[in-house]
Design brief:
Number of domains: 1
Structural class: mainly alpha
Distance between the termini: 42 Å
Radius of gyration: 20 Å
Largest sheet: none
CATH superfamily: MFS general substrate transporter like domains
Number of strands: 0
Shape: globular
CATH class: Mainly Alpha
Number of helices: 8
Length: 224
C-alpha cells in the first residue's frame, strides 16, 4: 500500500493511482498471477523445511558451529559453481521447465538428509542442495521479471516480496507442526512430497504456455 513508483506522471494519473491504492489490479494480470501461485506454493513447501533441517542437524546429527559453517560454505560454493549452468540452460529450455527441474531437485533434500547422521555425508548433501538453490533463486527472479509488465514493475515486485515475507513467517511454523505431529522422518518425507508437488506447478505453466504458442502458430489461428 505504501509502495510508489518514482516516475513522472500527470496530476490526473496521480489522482487515479491514489484512488486505486487498495485495489487488486496487480493480481488480475494473468502472467503475474500464474507465476505468483507457483512461486508461493513452492516457497511454502521449501520454507517448511527450514526449521526441521536445523533441528535435525542439532538434535539428530549433533552438529557443532564448525559443521554448520561447513554446511553453509559448501552450499554457497555449489551455488557459485552451478549458476552459469542454470543461466545457460534456461536460455535454451525456458525458465519454467528449468524451475521444475530445480524445484524437483530441492524436493530430494529432506529425504536424502535423513538417510544418515554422518556429518561428512550431510556436508555433501548441502553441496547437492546448493546446486538447486542456485537454480531456484536465479530462475524465480528471472521469471518474476518476465511475468511482470514494464509499467509499474516495481509495484509487482513489491507485492511479491511482501507475500514472501508472510510465507517466511508461516511456513517454518508449519514445518514444526509436522515435526511435532509425525516425527522427524515423516515430517521430512512430507516436506519432500510437498516440494515435489509444487514443482509440477511450474511444469504445468510451462506446458500451458507451449500449447498456447503452438495454437497461435497454427494455420487456424493464422487464418483467424
Amino acid at each position: 500500500m505504501k509502495h510508489k513508483d518514482d516516475f513522472p506522471t500527470s496530476e490526473k494519473k496521480q489522482e487515479t493511482m491514489k484512488r486505486q491504492k487498495l485495489s487488486l489490479t496487480v493480481f488480475r494480470y494473468k502472467p503475474y498471477a500464474a507465476f505468483l501461485v507457483c512461486a508461493i506454493a513452492y516457497n511454502i513447501s521449501a520454507q517448511m523445511g527450514w526449521s526441521i533441517f536445523s533441528i535435525y542437524h542439532i538434535k539428530e546429527a549433533h552438529a557443532t558451529a564448525l559443521w554448520f559453517s561447513l554446511f553453509s560454505v559448501t552450499n554457497q560454493l555449489a551455488q557459485i559453481l552451478s549458476l552459469k549452468w542454470w543461466a545457460k540452460f534456461a536460455d535454451r529450455w525456458g525458465n519454467n521447465i528449468l524451475l521444475f527441474v530445480a524445484a524437483a531437485g530441492m524436493a530430494s533434500a529432506p529425504v536424502l538428509t535423513i538417510l544418515s547422521t554422518n556429518l561428512v555425508y550431510i556436508t555433501l548433501i548441502n553441496f547437492w542442495i546448493g546446486i538447486f538453490v542456485a537454480g531456484t533463486n536465479l530462475l524465480l527472479f528471472n521469471q518474476l521479471l518476465k511475468a511482470t509488465p514494464d509499467k509499474s514493475r516495481t509495484n509487482y515486485i513489491a507485492n511479491y516480496n511482501f507475500l514472501l515475507a508472510i510465507v517466511g513467517f508461516i511456513a517454518p511454523q508449519m514445518g514444526v507442526f509436522l515435526l511435532n505431529q509425525f516425527g522427524m522422518d515423516s515430517a521430512m518425507t512430507l516436506v519432500s512430497a510437498a516440494r515435489f508437488a509444487a514443482s509440477f506447478c511450474f511444469l504445468f505453466v510451462a506446458m500451458k504456455l507451449e500449447n498456447r504458442k503452438a495454437f497461435r502458430g497454427s494455420p487456424i489461428e493464422d487464418s483467424v
